[in-house]
C-alpha cells in the first residue's frame, strides 16, 4: 500500500513542482510588469473556464495537443523520442483534406469521416515508420532523423500545396465533402456559443483508451514498455527489439495524425499551410508533463489549452508572451525533475556517442 | 543534495591530526578521547534509519577495533551497506551517533567523512575512465605547478604510495585499460591518499576473479597490520573467515551480535545471518544417476563468434560442448574469456559465425531467442538488472516476459491468468515478499534472482514439466546464502527431472557443488573438460590462471 503511495507521489512530484515553479515565475513577471498577480490570474480563469465560450475554446485547443501528446508519449514508453510530430501532423492533415475533398458528396456522414480519418492515420503512420525503421536498421538516432524529416516533409507539402493542390489565389486546398465534416458542439450545447469546439473532440477519449489498452493490455504493449524500460532485458527475453521500435514509431505517427482530424474535419474543412504549426512540438511538452500516462496527458493538454486561450484573455494587462515563458518554465522543471526523461535523454546521448565513435 | 558534497573542489589542507576544518562542516558532538575510544576506530551507538516505510537500520550499535579487519556480514538487504554509507557520510541517520577515530558525530557529509579519516570503496567504482591512474588518485586535491596539474609529481606520489602499501599498479595507465581488480586497487589508493585511516570496502570481491580475490585479501591484511582499520562489507563467508578478526552480523536491519572469527565457523556465521540452519557449499543430492541412454539436451558444435562489443576480437573459438538430459555441465573460467558469448550464443541473442547450436537434437542455430524458448530452452542471464528483470515493472508482468503466448489471446493479455501464474510462482519459490504487484526493484537481489530462475524454469515445451535445457550464467552472483541454497535446490530438481543444465559460473564453490562435469573456458576455447570426481579447486584454479596470464599478454600487446 505505502509503496504504491510513494510511487504515486514520486510520479506526481515533477508535474506538481513544475506548476508551482511556473506559478512563481509568473507572479514575478506580473509584478515586474506592474500588475497584481491575483488580478491577472482571475482574469485568466474568467477568460477560460469562466464562460461557456472560454471552455469551448480551451477544449478546442487542448484536443490536438492531447493527441500529439499521446503520440510522443507512446514513443516515449518504448524509449524513443518522437520529435517528428510536426511533419506527421501536417502531412496527415493534408492527406485528410485531400481525401475528404475527393470524396463524392453523396457518401454518408460516418463513413466519410472514417475514410478521412483512416487516410490521415495511414499517412502519419508511414511518416512515423521511416525514422523507426532507420533506427532499427541502421541505428540512426530518432531524435535526429525525426527532426530532419520534419523539414523534408514540410518542404514536400509546401511544394504540393503551392504547385498542385491549392485553389487559385489561396494557400489552401479545396473544401472537403459535406459528409466528412464534423459539426460544432455549440450547435447542440448552446452554452458553448461562439467557440470553435467540434465533435472532433471525441477522438481524444477514444485515443486515450486505445493508448492505455495497447500499452497495458496487449502483448505488444508489454513488449513495448519492456523495450522502453530496459532494451537489454527485452532482448534477453526474446523480444524483437527492432520490430518493437519500428512499430512504436509507426503508432506514434498514427496518433499524431489523429491530431489533425478535429482541426481539418471539425474546424477548417480544408488544409491550409502553416495552420496548427507547433502542435507537434507542444505534444512533447504535454507528454512530459503528463508523464506518459493517458490521464496525465489529457490533463496536461487541458492545462496548456487553458494557458494558450488564457493568454488572449490577459493580453490587456500583461504581454501574452508571459504565457510562453510559463509554458517554458513548466517544461524545464518537468524535464529536470523527472527521472524517466533523464534516463531516455541519457540513453539518447550515449547512443549518439556510440554511433559517432563507430564512424570515427 | 548530497551529490554536491561528493564532488568536492577540495582544499587539501588537513591539519596534522587529519580532521582540520571539520568544525564548521560537521561539528563533532563532543571530542571523544575517552579511555575506551582510544582503541576503537569506529563506534556506532543506536544508529537508526528508515526509507519511507522500510526500516533499513534499527538501533545498531557496534565497535570496530583499531588496525584490525572487521567484517560486516548479512544477507542482501540486511542493511550493511546502508550502515557503512552512514559512516562515509552518504546517508544521514535518523537517530544515533557514531565515533570515528575518537571524534564523535551525529552525522557527516561526504567531505566531512573524508576529513574524519574515512575512505569508502564502493561496489561500483567511481573512476574517470579516460584519465590515468595518477590523475584519478589525485583528483580533487591535485599537486599543481602554477595553474597546471603537476603530472610528474602526481605520478611520483602515486607510485610511492602504491609501493609503500604493496599495491601493484601502473600510475600512468589509463583507467579504461585496467582490469577490474586493478581499478579496485586504484580506488583503494585514492582513499589512502585522501588520508583514510578507516577504510570501508563494500562487497569488494563481488567482481573479482579468484586470483584477484586472493591478492585483495592479502592486501587487506597488510593494510591492517600497517595500522589502517579495514571494514569489509560482505556476504561471502569464506572470505570473512580468512581475512577478518571479528565480524558483526546484521539481519533485517538489526545487529545480531559480534563474533570473534577465531571462535566461529562459516556454518555458524551463515546460521546467524539467515536465522536458520544452512549447508554451505553442498549442492542438492541427486535422486538418481544420469540415465545411461540420456540423449543430448543441448549441444554446441564447433561454435565460433566474435566478442560482443568488440567485433574484431575472438569471443568463442571452436567451442564444442554437449549437455545430456539430467546433467549439469559447469563452465569455469575468468570472466571475459567468452562466458558472455557462450550464454548469448546458446540463448540465441548472437548468431555464431560458424558452427551449430542444437537443442534436444534439433538444429536451432538460426532460430531466435523467442523460438528457442518455445522449444523448451530457459536462460538465466548473468546480469539480472540489465538482462533479467525490468526493475520498474511489477513482478506479474516480469514473470510473463518471454512467454506471452501462454497468457494472451489474440494478442490481448489475460491479466487475471498472469497474476495467478505469478502468485503461484512466487509462492513456489518462496519469494519474499510474495506480492506480485510489487515492482521488481522492491525485492532484494536474492529474491530478484529467485524470480528470474522461477520464470526460466517455466519454459517447458508443451507436455513436459521442466525445460529441455537451461543455460544459466552466474545464477547466484550477489545473492545471499539463503537464496543460493534455494536456487541450487531448484536447478537440482530440474536436473533430476531431465533438464540439461549448462552452468556458466566464476564461483568455484558453485561449480563444484552442482556440476557433473566441468569445462574450463580460456580465451574463448575449451581447454579442458574434467569429471567432477577429478576436479578440485587447485586444478581448476591452475587452468583458469592460464587464462589470466594469456589475458595479460594480450592486454600488453
Q: Would you mind describing this structure in some detail?
A:
The complex is a heterodimer of chains A (360) and B (557). Chain A has 360 residues and is mostly helical. Chain A has one domain (53-359): Orthogonal Bundle (ABC transporter involved in vitamin B12 uptake, BtuC). Chain A contains 15 helices and no strands. Chain A has helices at 2-32, 37-48, 52-77, 85-102, 109-138, 142-165, 203-217, 219-229, 231-236, 241-258, 260-268, 279-289, 294-313, 321-337, 339-359. In chain A, α3 (52-77) crosses α13 (294-313), α4 (85-102) runs parallel beside α6 and α8 crosses α10 (241-258). The relative contact order of chain A is 0.20. The mean pLDDT of chain A is 89. Chain B has 557 residues and is α/β, with parallel strands linked by helices. Chain B folds into three domains: 1-30 and 67-93 and 107-117 and 197-280, P-loop containing nucleotide triphosphate hydrolases (Rossmann fold), CATH 3.40.50.300; 127-190, no CATH class; 296-389 and 460-556, P-loop containing nucleotide triphosphate hydrolases (Rossmann fold, 3-Layer(aba) Sandwich). Chain B has 18 helices and 24 strands. A six-stranded mixed sheet of chain B has the order 6-9-10-3-11-12, sandwiched between helices. A six-stranded mixed sheet of chain B has the order 18-21-22-15-23-24, with helices on both faces. In chain B, a hairpin with a 2-residue loop joins β7 (144-145) and β8. In chain B, α15 (445-457) packs parallel to α16. Chain B is globular, with a radius of gyration of 25 Å. The model of chain B is unreliable at 1-37 and 547-557 (pLDDT under 50). The chains are: A mainly alpha (360), B alpha/beta (557). Chains A and B meet through α1, α8 and α9 of A and α11, α12 and β20 of B.
Amino acid at each position: 500500500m505505502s509503496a504504491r503511495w510513494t510511487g504515486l507521489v514520486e510520479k506526481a512530484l515533477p508535474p506538481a513542482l513544475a506548476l508551482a515553479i511556473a506559478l512563481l515565475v509568473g507572479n514575478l513577471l506580473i509584478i515586474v510588469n506592474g500588475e497584481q498577480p491575483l488580478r491577472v490570474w482571475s482574469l485568466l480563469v474568467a477568460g477560460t473556464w469562466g464562460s461557456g465560450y472560454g471552455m469551448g475554446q480551451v477544449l478546442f485547443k487542448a484536443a490536438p495537443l492531447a493527441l500529439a501528446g499521446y503520440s510522443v508519449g507512446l514513443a516515449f514508453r518504448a524509449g524513443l523520442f518522437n520529435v517528428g510530430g510536426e511533419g506527421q501532423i501536417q502531412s496527415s492533415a493534408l492527406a485528410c483534406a485531400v481525401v475528404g475533398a475527393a470524396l463524392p458528396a453523396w457518401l454518408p456522414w460516418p463513413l466519410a469521416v472514417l475514410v478521412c480519418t483512416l487516410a490521415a492515420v495511414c499517412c502519419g503512420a508511414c511518416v512515423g515508420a521511416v525514422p523507426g525503421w532507420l533506427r532499427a536498421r541502421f541505428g540512426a538516432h530518432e531524435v535526429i532523423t525525426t527532426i530532419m524529416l520534419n523539414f523534408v516533409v514540410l518542404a514536400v507539402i509546401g511544394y504540393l500545396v503551392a504547385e498542385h493542390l491549392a485553389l487559385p489565389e489561396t494557400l489552401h486546398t479545396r473544401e472537403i465533402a459535406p459528409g466528412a465534416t464534423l459539426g460544432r458542439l455549440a450547435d447542440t450545447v448552446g452554452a458553448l456559443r461562439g467557440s470553435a469546439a467540434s465533435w472532433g473532440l471525441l477522438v481524444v477519449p477514444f485515443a486515450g483508451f486505445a493508448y492505455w489498452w495497447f500499452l497495458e493490455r496487449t502483448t505488444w504493449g508489454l513488449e513495448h514498455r519492456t523495450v522502453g524500460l530496459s532494451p537489454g532485458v527485452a532482448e534477453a527475453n526474446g523480444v524483437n527489439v527492432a520490430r518493437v521500435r519500428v512499430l512504436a514509431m509507426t503508432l506514434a505517427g498514427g496518433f499524431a495524425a489523429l491530431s489533425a482530424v478535429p482541426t481539418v474535419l471539425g474546424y477548417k474543412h480544408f488544409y491550409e499551410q502553416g495552420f496548427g504549426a507547433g502542435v507537434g512540438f507542444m505534444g512533447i511538452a504535454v507528454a512530459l508533463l503528463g508523464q506518459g500516462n493517458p490521464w496525465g496527458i489529457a490533463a496536461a493538454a487541458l492545462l496548456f489549452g487553458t494557458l494558450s486561450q488564457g493568454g488572449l484573455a490577459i493580453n490587456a494587462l500583461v504581454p501574452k508572451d508571459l504565457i510562453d515563458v510559463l509554458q517554458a518554465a513548466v517544461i524545464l522543471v518537468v524535464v529536470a525533475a523527472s527521472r524517466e526523461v533523464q534516463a531516455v535523454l541519457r540513453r539518447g546521448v550515449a547512443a549518439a556517442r556510440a554511433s559517432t565513435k563507430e564512424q570515427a | 543534495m548530497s551529490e554536491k558534497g561528493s564532488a568536492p573542489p577540495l582544499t587539501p589542507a588537513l591539519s596534522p591530526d587529519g580532521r582540520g576544518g571539520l568544525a564548521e562542516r560537521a561539528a563533532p558532538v563532543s571530542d571523544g578521547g575517552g579511555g575506551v575510544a582510544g582503541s576503537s576506530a569506529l563506534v556506532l551507538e543506536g544508529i537508526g534509519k528508515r526509507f519511507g516505510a522500510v526500516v533499513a537500520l534499527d538501533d545498531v550499535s557496534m565497535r570496530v577495533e583499531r588496525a584490525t579487519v572487521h567484517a560486516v556480514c548479512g544477507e542482501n538487504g540486511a542493511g550493511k551497506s546502508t550502515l557503512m554509507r552512514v559512516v562515509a557520510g552518504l546517508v544521514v541517520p535518523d537517530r544515533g551517533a557514531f565515533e570515528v577515530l575518537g571524534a564523535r558525530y551525529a552525522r557527516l557529509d561526504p567531505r566531512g567523512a573524508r576529513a574524519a579519516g574515512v575512505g569508502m570503496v564502493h561496489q561500483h567504482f567511481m573512476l574517470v575512465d579516460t584519465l590515468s591512474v595518477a590523475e584519478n588518485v589525485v583528483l580533487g586535491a591535485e599537486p599543481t605547478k602554477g595553474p597546471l596539474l603537476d603530472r610528474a609529481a602526481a605520478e611520483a606520489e602515486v607510485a610511492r604510495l602504491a609501493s609503500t602499501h604493496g599495491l601493484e599498479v601502473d600510475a600512468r595507465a589509463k583507467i579504461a585499460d585496467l582490469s577490474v581488480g586493478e581499478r579496485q586497487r586504484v580506488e583503494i589508493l585514492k582513499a589512502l591518499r585522501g588520508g583514510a585511516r578507516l577504510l570501508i570496502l563494500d562487497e569488494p570481491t563481488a567482481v573479482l576473479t579468484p586470483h584477484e580475490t586472493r591478492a585483495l585479501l592479502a592486501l587487506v591484511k597488510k593494510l591492517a597490520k600497517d595500522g589502517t582499520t579495514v571494514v569489509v562489507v560482505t556476504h561471502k563467508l569464506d572470505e570473512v573467515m580468512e581475512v577478518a578478526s571479528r565480524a558483526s552480523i546484521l539481519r533485517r536491519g538489526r545487529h545480531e551480535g559480534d563474533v570473534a572469527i577465531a571462535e566461529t565457523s562459516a556454518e555458524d556465521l551463515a546460521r546467524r545471518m539467515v536465522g536458520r540452519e544452512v549447508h554451505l557449499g553442498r549442492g542438492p543430492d541427486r535422486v538418481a544417476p544420469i540415465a545411461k541412454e540420456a540423449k543430448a539436451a543441448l549441444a554446441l558444435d564447433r561454435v565460433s563468434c566474435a566478442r560482443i562489443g568488440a567485433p574484431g576480437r575472438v569471443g568463442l573459438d571452436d567451442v564444442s560442448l554437449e549437455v545430456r538430459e539430467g546433467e549439469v555441465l559447469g563452465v569455469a573460467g575468468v570472466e571475459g574469456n567468452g562466458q558472455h558469448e557462450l550464454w548469448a550464443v546458446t540463448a540465441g541473442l548472437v548468431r555464431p559465425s560458424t558452427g551449430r547450436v542444437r537443442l534436444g537434437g534439433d538444429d536451432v542455430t538460426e532460430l531466435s531467442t523467442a523460438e528457442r524458448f518455445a522449444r523448451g530452452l530457459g536462460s538465466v542471464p548473468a546480469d539480472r538488472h540489465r538482462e533479467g528483470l525490468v526493475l520498474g515493472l511489477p513482478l506479474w508482468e516480469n514473470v510473463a516476459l518471454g512467454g506471452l503466448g501462454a497468457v494472451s489471446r489474440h494478442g490481448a493479455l489475460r491479466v487475471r491468468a498472469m497474476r495467478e501464474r505469478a502468485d503461484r510462482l512466487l509462492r513456489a519459490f518462496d519469494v519474499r515478499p510474495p506480492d506480485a504487484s510489487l515492482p521488481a526493484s522492491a525485492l532484494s537481489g536474492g529474491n530478484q534472482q529467485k524470480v528470474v530462475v522461477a520464470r526460466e524454469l517455466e519454459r517447458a515445451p508443451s507436455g513436459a514439466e521442466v525445460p529441455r535445457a537451461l543455460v544459466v550464467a552466474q545464477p547466484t552472483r550477489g545473492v545471499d546464502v539463503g537464496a543460493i541454497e534455494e536456487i541450487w535446490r531448484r536447478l537440482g530438481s530440474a536436473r533430476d527431472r531431465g533438464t540439461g543444465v549448462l552452468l556458466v559460473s566464476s564461483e568455484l564453490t558453485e561449480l563444484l557443488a552442482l556440476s557433473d562435469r566441468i569445462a574450463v573456458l580460456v580465451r574463448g576455447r575449451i581447454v579442458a573438460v574434467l569429471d567432477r570426481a577429478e576436479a578440485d579447486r587447485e586444478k581448476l584454479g591452475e587452468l583458469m590462471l592460464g587464462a589470466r596470464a594469456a589475458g595479460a599478454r594480450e592486454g600488453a600487446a
